[in-house]
Amino acid sequence: MKRSLVVFLLIFLVSCATKKQVAEFEALPNWVKQKPILPGYYVGIASVKKVGTTAQYTAKARRQALADLAESVSSTVSSTSVLHAIETQYGFSETFNQKIEITTSDYLEGFEPVDAYDTEDSYWVYYKIDKRTYHEMKEKKKQEAIAAALSKYQSGTEQDQKNNPKEAIAFYLQGLQALKQYLNEDNPAIYNNQPIDIGNELFSSINKLLNNLKIGAERSGVIVKRRESFKDQLEFLITYRGQPVHGIPVSFSFSGGYLKTDQQVSGESGKVSLEPFSVYSKNKDEQITAAIDLKTLAQQSVDDLFIRGIIQQHDIQPAIVDIKIMDPTIALHLGKNSYSNNQYNKVTTLFVQNADQFGFSTLSESNTDYLLEMDIHYQPGERAGGLVSVYLSAQLMLKNQRGQTIWSKQTENIKGVGYSNDEARNIAFEEFLTALNRKYFKQGLEAIK
Fold first, then answer.
1. Is 446 exposed, middle or buried (0-12, 13-18, 19+ CB in 10 A)?
2. Beta-carbon contacts of residue 45 (< 8 Å; ≥ 6 apart)
3. How crowded is residue 170: how many other Cβ atoms within 10 Å of its Cβ?
């Protein structure tokens, strides 16, 4: 009995709740229940939660309703439009796959608020715009944009003829920026009494200009020793239609590391130069690349990211200089009278191993970039209980080709203890070998800048 009563109460409550929901739905305006279709009008409707102040949520609803309105009037991409040409040439990249969207400032000024509705927690708004009013405003703004683009095109053409590609491309990009909202449409205009599509003319002029903009290196390669710099600066020439041009930004990159200066602008001679720098790469071959900096060129021309991307995708062959890296050479000079043959071989083997790790080749003493001189000395120590001790010390001196000392080291005394003088010497020498390998050779090689 009790269970039946519980079930009845649940059914009753669900029924009441359903009736309440039905009543609430019936109370909604028809335009809230279903987006209306009004002959001769575009319609935009939006709903938002009442979050924040009244001004905040009503403004949000208004923006969303206008965005909904804009979707109603958006058009497809014309097969002869600039946007179609861009997508055909560059593909659907992150930059070019953006849609040309209509915003509230673009010929939607004629929208009319129709109604608004709110509940305890939600707010709806309803806008419309007369189709004829919309198309009239759009056409008016489009003609203004075409006129502005045509003016930029003419200025760009004049600069192009004067061999000023930087100024010309700025005008061409500014023309496309003026047309941005219409790049998915045909944009007919008259230029020099001839019919043209101004958008396609601007895009075509940009491509022709960039195809004629070149950069070349005056040297194809240089040879340099590791840890040293090449002797002369590297020069690159920027030309437009074969003539040197100034004001073109160039970016440098080095495959073997970072550059202190990686950007320059061509001067009156059309040249940029890269100052010599020390090369530390352990590779045998690296490259310096000089490329026309289209990103900077675009940033200097327009502020719209989409329009900038049009030239940033263009491929201009960079200038490349091959860097052949030779190992610097180093030799070790030992006073042979202080070493046995076995000791001499052990020291030279360790030295060659360390030199190789630091990118040096080892040569004879007579023809080398650096010479490491090393002398060792033994001093007798204490005797006790049948044991004798010996102290070993060494003087290391690193010199360059001019005989200048660039590093020196006096080691601490290393003690060896044995049952004979020879045994004590050998033990001290083995300790010295360990110290050479762990720190002294490395310290000397690191001192070579």
1. exposed
2. 31, 32, 35, 65, 68, 124, 125, 126, 127
3. 20
Task: State the pairing for strand pair 234-240/243-244.
Answer: antiparallel
Q: What are phi and psi of 65, to 5 degrees?
A: -65, -40
Q: How many residues are listed for the chain in this entry?
A: 449
Q: Please state the φ and ψ torsions of residue 163, each to the nearest 5 degrees.
A: 65, 40
pLDDT < 50 regions, the chain: 6-7, 12, 14, 16, 92-105
Distance from C-alpha of 56 to C-alpha of 58, rounded to nearest angstrom = 6
- What's the pLDDT at 2? 52
68 close to 46: Cβ distance less than 8 angstroms: yes
Crossing angle for the helix pair 305-312 and 294-301, to the nearest 10 degrees: 150
- pLDDT in the model for residue 75: 65
Burial class (CB in 10 A: 0-12, 13-18, 19+), 146: buried
- What tens digit of pLDDT does each residue of 7-35 get? 455 554 545 456 556 666 677 899 999 99
pLDDT of residue 97: 42
Q: How far is CA 278 from CA 154, 224, 259, 281, 323, in A?
A: 48, 9, 10, 9, 12
Q: What is the pTM of this model?
A: 0.73
Whether the Cβ atoms of residue 205 and residue 153 lie closer than 8 Å to each other: yes
With H, G, I as helix, E, B as strand and everything else as coil, classify residue 46.
strand
| Whether the Cβ atoms of residue 189 and residue 89 lie closer than 8 Å to each other | no
For residue 108, what pLDDT is reported? 65
Read off the tokens for 300.
């200097």
| pLDDT score for 376 | 92
DSSP string, 225-261: ETTSB-SS-EEEEEEETTEE-SS-EEEEEETTB--S-
